[in-house]
Specification:
The protein is of the alpha/beta class. Helices cover about 40% and strands about 20% of the residues. The chain has helices spanning about 1-15, 40-55, 70-80, 95-100, 135-140, 155-165, 180-190, 200-210, 260-270, 275-285, 295-315; strands spanning about 30, 60-65, 85-90, 110-115, 120-125, 150, 175, 195-200, 215, 250-255, 290.
């Protein structure tokens, strides 16, 4: 009789035990690493509504700014690895270690999707006495220190692009710091600086309006947004060792997140990134749609970290050697 009762209880226990809930069973938090209205914010708020439809839950997005994205990155890292907190971010965490900003990078996260990357270019004031990259280099060398080049601080896109340029050509220019590419591009139009390394998405409307001219496209192929502008590798093949390169946007979760949650998030964002309006936004802003995840995304992230970490270190703007973190030279 005792065995019968135990069997009945066990059977009853199996009957009333709740089934495992399918992910997601509640709304998801999306933490955007940069402020409202910026490129990262715009990309995430454009793609996420499409992903929500496939997930069947809302992704409540908030902006957590500060510390070159460290505040948002650390916050997501402090949350449970359950798939309910997404890091919606850009490239910056990949150089936190060498820049001495934080002890983390994307190796502590799982890439749901690296959505797109920006394409760098060199723009100049319309009155500058050079119209091509080769003419700019020749002028800078003939007038050392005279050319004023915009910068947004160590580790920013302009500083990395400038460091990349100096691996191939001697470039004796004077860097002028600005708090973001917006103010720097405004200064360029007003003549306060002469040249600015920028992202195509930030400069494209100024170029189309004739407010500045393009000296170089920092890529390996032509870009439909700039017809007739040859990539820099056409004249300087050595840049191919670093390219393609550019700032990027991606969605990440903390490492350790269950596989089913990762799979559903990846499927949702992969489909969302293929929606016509999102692709049109990327094209219109000069971004290269990537939409990669898994091993492909991890390989891209590793190469980006290798190239950028060593560029900023060799340029003397990093606090630590990439060797200290096992980051190989590209």
């Amino acid at each position: 009789m005792r065995h019968i009762l135990l069997g009945a209880v066990a059977a009853l226990g199996l009957t009333v035990a709740p089934a495992l809930a399918e992910y997601p069973e509640k709304d998801i938090q999306g933490v955007i690493q940069w402020g409202a209205g910026g490129s990262t914010d715009t990309v995430m708020r454009a793609v996420t509504p499409h992903a929500e439809k496939l997930l069947g839950r809302s992704v409540v997005m908030t902006n957590r700014t500060g510390g070159v994205g460290v505040i948002a990155t650390k916050f997501v890292q402090s949350q449970d690895a359950d798939g309910y907190t997404l890091l919606m971010s850009a490239e910056n965490p990949q150089i936190y270690k060498v820049m001495g900003l934080a002890d983390t990078d994307y190796s502590d996260f799982i890439p749901i999707s690296v959505l797109a990357r920006g394409v760098p270019l060199i723009v100049a004031n319309n009155d500058a006495p050079y119209n091509t990259f080769a003419e700019f280099v020749a002028y800078a060398q003939a007038n050392p220190g005279k050319v004023r080049i915009g910068s947004t601080g160590p580790g920013g896109v302009p500083s990395v692009v400038t460091a990349m340029l100096t691996t191939q050509v001697e470039l004796p220019v004077t860097a002028v710091p600005y708090d973001g590419d917006g103010p720097a591009l405004t200064a360029l139009q007003g003549g306060a600086i002469d040249v600015m390394p920028a992202v195509l998405g930030a400069a494209i409307e100024h170029v189309r309006a004739g407010r500045m001219k393009v000296l170089a496209l920092i890529d390996t192929v032509e870009n439909p947004a700039l017809p007739g502008i040859a990539p820099i590798t056409a004249e300087y093949p050595g840049f191919g060792d670093y390219l393609p390169w550019g700032p990027f946007f991606g969605v990440f979760v903390k490492k350790g997140t269950p596989e089913d949650a990762v799979a559903k998030l990846r499927a949702a964002y992969q489909a969302a990134a293929e929606e016509a309006d999102f692709k049109a936004l990327m094209d219109g802003r000069g971004f290269k749609l990537m939409n990669i995840s898994g091993a492909e995304a991890e390989a891209f992230l590793a190469k980006w970290q290798s190239v950028t970490s060593w560029l900023v270190f060799d340029a003397g703007i990093a606090k630590h050697s990439p060797e200290d973190f096992g980051i190989p030279r590209p």
